[in-house]
Amino acid sequence: MNLAAIQDALREASLDGWLFYDHHHRDPLAYRILGLDAEMFVSRRWYYFVPAAGEPRKLVHRIETGKLDSLPGSKAEYSSWQEMERGLEEMLRGATRVAMQYSPRNAILYVSMVDAGTVELVRGLGKEVVSSADLISRFEAVLTEAQIASHYKAQEKVDRVLAGAWAEIGTRVRRDGVTDEFAIVQWMLGAFAREGLFTDHGPNVSVGPNSADPHYEPVQGRSRAIRSGDFVLIDLWAKVAGAADAVWYDITWTGVVDRAPTEREAKIFMLVRDTRDAAIQRIEQAFAEGRRIAGWEADEAARELIRRAEFGAYFVHRTGHNIGTELHGSGAHLDNLETHDERLILPQTCFSVEPGLYFPGEFGVRSEVNMLTSTNSARVSGPRQTELVRI
User: By CB distance 3.0 to 4.6 Å, which of 185, 235, 277, 337 could disulfide with 204?
Assistant: First the structure.
């Protein structure tokens, strides 16, 4: 835990402190931000309050008194619920605006780790509970230069695997007349291993109507054949193996086997491509101008274009997600559909831009790139697909 950095952030946000609370590992964010052992046994409630200035304070149960001993600050203990509430009141004495892992109306559900009853308890002590969403982004999503380098290393390797997968599909179809989704997934997993990459699941290869399901996953025994004339979507994600702080790279491309795209396929692809680029441009412009931009604003830049084309009903997911050491990280998502994400897109963060249009029973197109930001710029970290791949 970087106490000085947390207290600087609290003062910048005009907050009196940040109250961390957990019971049975309900808040994994707290363990990561505070540097606590995520595997330690926790059967009783603990509280840790970091004030904007001064010494932090701990409140722990008497049968688990050592749970927060790795953290700085004074310690109080409790046994009964009455004693716990008195201890919490004393812990928060002098503070009014307190950040917690809470989101009004659960608008940003990724940070809503504290139960409603605990929020009620803190409010009952006369405190204003404020969402810690932007604080979490600052301490969870901001990347080091080494982490950014790991993203680029993964990008180079994953892009090489994707190029090989397209070639492998073409070779198998022309040689054998057919392959299948699961076989190409297995080929890519082998390529990941050869490249020194790690993935937690997937990748996905989706053919024809299966590409209209954004989260389709082929499995052995339930996998669609790939033949000449098919439409194919490949979604793959990985990070450098063996590095705990490595950052993911996550992309999606689409193509057709042994033929030219149909007029409809080309039209849909170009709309998705232009939508992707509209979101990218909005983010690039904001950073170049030194202007703050929230995740929902970037989503709207994409969604507005698709709505104007009267395809809004077929764009059924957010435009992008934060990327870090977790594939779906704790920073701002590009989202004004599934959630209204008011978190700011911060410098030194990574995220996907991946609009898609899906036509059940027919096909789906998604075009996904990753972006990295710095103080005055935002950039796409890998190649952008500009036309459907001809396999």
Answer: 235
| Dist CA 271 CA 380 (whole Å) | 19
| Cα gap 338→327, rounded to integer Å | 18
Please state, in angstroms and rounded to a whole number, the distance separating the CA atoms of residues 335 and 332.
Answer: 8
pLDDT, tens digit (0-9, with 9 covering 90-100), for 324-349: 999 999 999 999 999 999 999 999 99
Question: Dihedral, CA atoms, 20, 23, 27, 29, nearest 10 degrees?
Answer: 50
Q: Which of 254, 218, 230, 238 is nearest to 355 (CA)?
A: 254
Cα separation, 246 vs 349, whole angstroms:
13
| C-alpha to C-alpha distance for 342 and 357, rounded to whole angstroms | 24
List the one residue out of 263, 239, 241 whose CA is nearest residue 250.
239
State whether 127 and 199 are in the same domain.
no
Give me the phi and psi of 205, to 5 degrees please.
Answer: -125, 120
**Domains: count for the chain:** 2
Calculate the CA 224 to chain-centre distance. 29
Round to whole Å and give the CA distance between 48 and 38.
16
Number of neighbouring beta carbons within 10 Å of residue 219? 9
Find, among 141, 254, 158, 233, the residue nearest to 197 by Cα. 158
Q: How far apart are CA 330 and CA 140, in angstroms?
A: 6
Q: What size, in residues, is the chain?
A: 391
Nearest to 372 by CA among 340, 342, 335, 347: 347
Task: Tell me what pLDDT residue 308 has.
Answer: 95
Do residue 173 and residue 253 come from a single domain? yes
Residue 194: give the domain boundaries. Answer: 142-390
Q: Is the CB of residue 120 less than 8 Å from the CB of residue 111?
A: no
Average pLDDT, the chain: 96
Region 9-33: mean pLDDT is: 95
Q: Are the beta carbons of 348 and 143 closer than 8 angstroms?
A: yes
Neighbouring C-beta atoms of residue 173, cutoff 10 Å: 20
- pLDDT surpasses 90 at 143: yes
Q: Is the pTM of this model over 0.85?
A: yes
Tell me the CATH number at 53. Answer: 3.40.350.10
330 closest CA partner among 343, 318, 312, 347: 343
Alpha helices in 177-262 (DSSP H): 181-195
